[in-house]
């Protein structure tokens, strides 16, 4: 019985590794300048975790195979040095593994979070609220008008709480439900939540950043391929969470200019 169990453990371990080794479920296409760093990190993590997983299963199977059916199975023998040595070894082993992954990933992390976008990056604001995303472009003056939470009025389409009567800077702001951006241009996306926690996730961009209530956050990225991609909320934010999405529309610079002009005329 023990030997059969050992064989089943080995078969399940190998079977679960096959789809990953064979790349049966490949990553979505990468359309960002930084995405290859994320993909390398994912591959390293999968390789390291996968290797440790298989090694652990094989060692388990070996012990089951070797010792399960022994006549003197009732006799308990302790690990040399006791549990403390085992725990210390496990902490050092796992700690080294996690630290190594952190060191490997620091370039991708630093490029996103410790390096500001270039000065000529295009600034766009995004607001997440139950259960939609809205985006705001500063318009010809290059400035986003102030927000007044008390003026937020979904019925009047004032999603950001703007006061164009009194704020000159918000008069030319352009608000959209779709995130249109020019290709090969660095985007500085300012993020805030209107209510609870949400997330901005575009798998092709390799960007996933939470909106945290009360915090103004920023991500920056450059898309390298025109097309329409899904933006989905990946933080469970309420009953409508499953349906909370928007589209990222990557266009040539001239198409983007025309698109923004058209949106401006609809304000
Ligand atoms: Cu959400």
What is the secondary structure topology, with strand pairs?
Blueprint lengths: L1 H20 L13 H33 L15 H31 L8 E8 L2 E6 L36 E3 L2 E4 L3 E8 L4 E5 L4 E5 L5 E6 L4 E6 L12 E7 L1 H13 L2
Parallel strand pairs: 1-5, 4-10
Antiparallel strand pairs: 1-2, 2-3, 5-8, 6-7, 9-10
Helix pairs in contact: 1-2, 2-3
Bound molecules: copper (II) ion (CU).
CATH topology of the largest domain: Immunoglobulin-like
Ligand list = copper (II) ion
Total number of β-strand segments?
A: 10
The overall number of domains is 2
Contiguous helical run count? 4
Structural class: alpha+beta
Rg from C-alpha positions?
26 Å
Notes on the protein architecture:
With 267 residues, the protein is of the alpha+beta class. It folds into 2 domains: 2-69 and 79-113, no CATH class; 122-265, Cupredoxins -  blue copper proteins (Immunoglobulin-like, Sandwich), CATH 2.60.40. Helix content is 36%, strand content 22%. The protein has 4 helices and 10 strands; from the N terminus they run αααββββββββββα. It has helices spanning 2-21, 35-67, 83-113, 253-265, and strands spanning 122-129, 132-137, 174-176, 179-182, 186-193, 198-202, 207-211, 217-222, 227-232, 245-251. The strands form 3 sheets. It has a 5-stranded mixed beta sheet. A 3-stranded mixed beta sheet has the order 4-10-9. The protein has a two-stranded antiparallel ribbon with strand order 6-7. A hairpin with a 2-residue loop joins β1 and β2. α1 runs antiparallel to α2 (35-67) and α2 runs antiparallel to α3. The mean pLDDT is 91. Residues 128, 131, 198, 233, 235, 237, 241, 244 line the site of copper (II) ion. Copper (II) ion binds at residues 128, 131, 198, 233, 235, 237, 241, 244.
